[in-house]
Amino acid sequence: MDSIVVRGNGPLSGQIPIAGAKNACLALMPATLLSDEPLTLTNAPRLSDIRTMTELLASLGAEVTALQDGKVLAASCHGEINPVADYEIVRKMRASNLVLGPLLARMGHAVVSLPGGCAIGARPMDIHVDALSALGAEIELKDGYLHAKARGGLRGATHEMRFASVGATENFLMAASLAKGTSVLKNAAREPEIVDLARCLRAMGAQIEGDGTSEIVIEGVERLHGATHPVVADRIELGTYMLAPAICGGEVECLGGRIDLIEAFCEKLDAAGVSVEQTHTGVKVSRKNGRIRAVDVVTEPFPGFPTDLQAQMMALLTTAEGTSVLEEKIFENRFMHAPELTRMGANIEVHGGHATVHGVETLKGAPVMATDLRASVSLILAGLAAEGETVVSRVYHLDRGYERVEEKLKAVGAHIERVKAS
Ligand code: UD1
């Protein structure tokens, strides 16, 4: 298995291109199941999670062809569809559950294995099941699979989710686009990836209003057609790379980045002593004079501070002046990076959903292990701040969500290498 070796770094300088959003692309790709015409996604990220979704869609009868070195995905689903999403593929990635809504809408039935994904909590499917049941689906769990049926097709309905789940909102949007009549989703998630999916569905002929707010109205249509859609920039990749100059000093511009996608994160960076500026071409980040200051962080659904940047923010705060408290409100068990950061000399106490980080002067390089996607990149960031060498193993998590991380960081002067497994 590959590992990544990082050495403590001086100031960084240069530009890092931000890819299309993994989480947006993973929701956009299943939309191909909704139409028999081609869907083309441009600005796609080149990641193993995207290859897993490609494999899953192929097993269902869709074709996804990677063009221009994977930056363009040409998808189509005009032939026979197999409505069974098998455990062997679904277990690799939780976002596989995003085929449930489209399969139900197009076929009237679907059998989808319960998903796996990052080990960051229980991650049940009840909100998806309730939302699709509101549209008239009958769903039961048998042998680890959700068996869903919509006798006579899906019917528009008003439904309020008990929590603003991102995935359940996406499943509902796709399913309701082809349901008979009007649907209203209350307490909908407002993440930019949902707005991006709604844009794509509209380009395919769907009638959707209110995306980006907590009430989305969908007027079902008979059929959807083909479209070409550019994937929105990855706000989590953006936030991650913004932390590199925050940790090392210097100035880095994240090309294609948009502050409006991560305002809550940018406010915390500002409070910690990092300056952030929107330019015509991206987001420019540099560290203000002096040491990083402690800040408290609470993760929340959008527009709050994203849970997917909590681990990386913790890496920054390990060497801040003062004590920071990070509260995780989205996923239980999402502090698995804390013991690894502690191995590098960080002073962190975890109690339930809170982590208290007492800033230390410096971290020391150490062998550490990645436990999930965002945890693994937080260890790389911490390595940039540490004296000596940090070896991050189990980097397959990293390759699920970061395109050529070592090349992008190296290009701005970071001391980082991938060591291939022999
Ligand atoms: C998406 C993102 C993930 C991000 C998360 C929260 C993708 C592919 N992944 O995941 O990177 O961390 O949003 O911003 O877009 N829950 C239930 N029942 C359900 C569904 C969810 O209890 O049926 C709980 C989850 O266990 C979790 C919380 O709701 O505690 C948030 O989950 P959700 O918003 O659904 O996240 P995902 O769509 O899985």
What do you see in this structure?
There is one protein chain. The chain is of the alpha/beta class. It has two domains: 204 residues, Enolpyruvate transferase domain (UDP-n-acetylglucosamine1-carboxyvinyl-transferase, Chain); 209 residues, UDP-n-acetylglucosamine1-carboxyvinyl-transferase, Chain (Alpha-beta prism), CATH 3.65.10. Helix content is 31%, strand content 27%. The strands form seven sheets. Strands 23-25-1-26 form a four-stranded mixed beta sheet. Strands 2-15-17-16 form a four-stranded mixed beta sheet. Strands 4-5-3-14 form a four-stranded mixed beta sheet. A hairpin with a 3-residue loop joins strand 16 and strand 17. The longest helix has 14 residues. The radius of gyration is 21 Å and the shape is elongated. The protein starts with a strand and ends with a strand. The model has no long low-confidence stretch (mean pLDDT 94). Uridine-diphosphate-N-acetylglucosamine binds next to helix 1, helix 5 and helix 6. Pathway: Cell wall biogenesis; peptidoglycan biosynthesis. Belongs to the EPSP synthase family. MurA subfamily. It is found in: Cytoplasm. GO terms for molecular function: UDP-N-acetylglucosamine 1-carboxyvinyltransferase activity.
Q: In which range does the helix fraction lie?
A: 25-40%
- The total number of structural domains is 2
Low-confidence stretches: none
In this structure, how is the largest beta sheet organized? 4 strands, mixed
Cα-based radius of gyration, to the nearest Å: 21 Å
CATH fold description of the largest domain: UDP-n-acetylglucosamine1-carboxyvinyl-transferase, Chain
Return the CATH architecture of the largest domain: Alpha-beta prism
The span between the termini is 8 Å
CATH superfamily of the largest domain: Enolpyruvate transferase domain
Number of separate strands: 26
Mean pLDDT: 94
Helical segment count: 14
Biggest sheet strand line-up: 23-25-1-26
**Structural class, from helix and strand content?**
alpha/beta
Quote the beta fraction: 25-35%
